[in-house]
UniProtKB/TrEMBL annotation:
Binding-site residues for chloride, renumbered to this chain: 227, 525
UniProt cross-references to Pfam families, sorted A to Z: Peptidase_M2
Protein's UniProt keywords contain Zinc: yes
Cysteine disulfide links: 357-375, 541-553
Record's protein name: Peptidase M2 family protein
Binding site for Zn(2+) 1: 388, 392, 416
Upper taxonomic lineage: Bacteria, Pseudomonadati, Pseudomonadota, Alphaproteobacteria, Maricaulales
Biological-process GO terms, alphabetical: proteolysis
Length: 617
């Protein structure tokens, strides 16, 4: 998975999200002003709440479009002035969202219609990084978040006299097999983040104060309140889901470690214990598919085709890859993307300026001004990423008739799962149907395909979980600033079974080397999306009566699945997420068992290969 994050205006309308925040009029809760400018008087009534919500939604809709345009420019033209504008709109956004959240609290406990009560909860709970009422502190928070984002986006490290950015350093990690070269690139990128640590600690201090003013114990409780269940229950739900898939991850880890040991030898990668993080083909060791040639099953290394090579041989460019993704959705009955999508998206990396390359999907006006922003390369990974990002756009379009506060995913994991569910249908049968391959490889090649896929989908799961577990500990004060890095590696070893290639410096702030930490994008959504995408896939394949192996099923061209899928997406956030899940899958509980079913052939192979090995770490 590339660093994928969602930046639709409606998604970010309630706080300092990863990309887009709403702008406001600068009033704060301390001003005592309602959204329509009238001072509150007496006990609130249902009509008061209705008037408040109508005005709040209108204000948020106007100002989130303004903020969306500012943030689009800042993300696609990074310089002093656009950073200044982003900081300014961030401050206004924070003050607006905090003011509305504070005013919404006035109606807590009032017997409201269900729809209105849900909107009040969304206003109170939806802020990502809340500032206290003090306008000066809100300005400080906006400056910090902009500075963190910019520091990450412009980070470089010099190797052999050449200044390398993240993309170039990542290429070394992805392609080199020299352990010393890998270590230098891995450690080099992490020289960018130590300067972030004081800012990050101050940001946490401010945001926790903001959460307190909104009635939450800390920012962790606030983030966890967004899942239609108490925070403690959601934490338990996450651990339950991890428990369902952990046995498959442990077998994959055991197998990969043994293969790396054979390739590098005991001095670089011992046969037991954790895996050295820089050997796994990804800057964050979050997905491992780049080392597939090192760990491919003996005799089954060839999955039957090389999609990257095919795309390049056919002369594909970035736009054509996006057009293929649009065609998939069209085949399921969805309307074509608007012409403005093609006019306004950033699909390739400009050569004349700095941009935020992390792939993202946007809906600037919360209606139909949908765009993607990504520095697309012609390869198999970006072929799938395009489908993922378009999934966000089609979801945004599906719910654009909802009231403004409901223009969002059922929960944040739904938004991430939509596109990846479609990408699971990029099967050999699908590639043959669209003319990219001539023949479907025999079932003998499935083991290699499944292993390659597991290096992304299964290897990611513990990483997707631990990012926010670290942040919850930070937000709750359980992890002090001086222990940020130690706690980070404790979790990475506990859940992923990995360690750094060498001792880390005393001032290291390795969490900051992952975009979503300085970018303040909640990460649990990605873990949940990986659970949901397989659950969606299994349900869709049952709809079409598929009887073969789950990993061979494709829903390309099936308008019945498209109609059911759209019915779920149209609900937006208007109903609790179990209702949306049930609309498509027929079940009301997230379930990791579909992952186990999908990778069943691989699990048997891994258990056979690992017999006699000491698994775990």
């Amino acid at each position: 998975m590339k660093q994928i994050w969602l930046c639709g205006a409606a998604i970010a309308a309630l706080g300092l999200a990863a990309c887009e925040q709403p702008a406001g009029n600068g009033e704060t809760p301390g001003d005592g002003a309602m959204a329509n400018g009238a001072a509150p008087a007496g006990e609130p009534t249902v009509e008061d709440a209705r008037a408040f919500l109508e005005n709040a939604e209108a204000e948020l809709a106007r100002m989130s479009e303004y903020a969306g345009r500012v943030y689009w420019v800042q993300n696609t033209y990074i310089n002093y002035d656009t950073n200044w504008l982003a900081s300014r709109v961030g401050s206004e956004s924070t003050q607006l969202s905090v003011r509305l959240a504070g005013e919404a609290a006035r109606f807590e406990g009032l017997d409201l219609p269900t729809e209105m009560s849900r909107k009040i909860d969304i206003l109170r709970q939806g802020i990502t990084i809340p500032a206290p009422a003090d306008a000066l502190i809100a300005d400080e928070l906006a400056e910090i978040t902009t500075r963190l984002d910019s520091t990450y986006a412009t980070g470089t490290y010099v190797i052999d006299g050449e200044e390398l950015d993240l993309g170039e350093l990542s290429t070394i990690i992805e392609t080199s097999r020299d352990p010393e070269e890998l270590r230098e690139a891995w450690e080099g990128w992490r020289t960018v983040s130590p300067v972030m640590a004081p800012d990050y600690a101050r940001m946490v201090e401010i945001a926790n104060a903001g959460a307190n003013e909104l009635g939450f114990a800390n920012l962790a409780e606030m983030w966890l309140s967004n899942y239609d269940m108490p925070p403690s229950e959601m934490e338990a739900e996450v651990e339950r889901l991890w428990g369902q898939v952990e046995p498959l991850y442990e077998q994959l880890h055991c197998y990969v470690r043994a293969e790396l040991h054979e390739h590098y030898g005991d001095e670089v990668q011992p046969a037991t214990g954790p895996i050295r993080a820089d050997l796994l083909g990804n800057m964050w060791a979050q997905q491992w598919s780049n080392i597939y040639p090192l760990v491919a099953p003996e005799g089954d290394a060839d999955p039957g085709y090389d999609l990257t090579a095919i795309l390049n041989e056919r002369g594909y460019d970035a736009r054509q890859m996006v057009e293929v993704g649009e065609d998939f959705f069209s085949s399921m009955g969805f309307s074509p993307l608007p012409e403005t999508f093609w006019e306004r998206s950033l699909i390739t990396q400009p050569e004349d300026r700095d941009v935020v390359c992390h792939a993202s999907a946007w809906n600037i006006d919360n209606v139909d001004d949908v765009r993607i922003k990504m520095c697309t390369e012609v390869n198999a990974e970006d072929f799938q990423t395009v489908h993922h990002e378009l999934g966000h756009n089609y979801y945004q379009r599906a719910y654009n008739q909802q009231d403004f506060l409901f223009r969002n995913g059922a929960h944040d994991g739904f938004h991430e799962a939509i596109g990846d569910f479609i990408a699971l249908s990029i099967t050999p049968e699908y590639l043959r149907e669209i003319g990219l391959i001539d023949e479907v490889p025999s079932a003998d090649a499935d083991l290699g395909l499944l292993l390659n896929q597991s290096l992304d989908k299964i290897a990611f799961l513990p990483f997707g979980l631990l990012i926010d577990k670290w942040r919850w500990g930070v937000f709750r004060g359980e992890i002090a600033p001086e222990n940020y890095n130690e706690a980070w590696w404790d979790l990475r070893t506990q859940y992923q079974g990995i360690v750094p290639p060498g001792e880390r410096p005393a001032d290291a702030f390795d969490p900051g080397a992952k975009y979503h930490i300085p970018g303040n994008t909640p990460y649990l959504r990605y873990f949940l999306s990986f659970i949901l995408q397989f659950q969606f896939h299994e349900a869709a394949c049952e709809m079409i009566g598929w009887e073969g192996p789950l990993h061979r099923c494709s829903v390309y061209g099936n308008e019945e699945v498209g109609a059911r899928f759209n019915a779920m997406m149209e609900m937006g956030q208007s109903q609790p997420w179990p209702d949306a899940l049930e609309a498509f899958t027929g079940t009301r509980q997230m379930d990791g068992s579909a992952i186990i079913a999908y990778f069943e052939p691989l699990m048997g192979y891994l258990e056979e290969q690992n017999e006699g090995r000491t698994c775990g770490w």
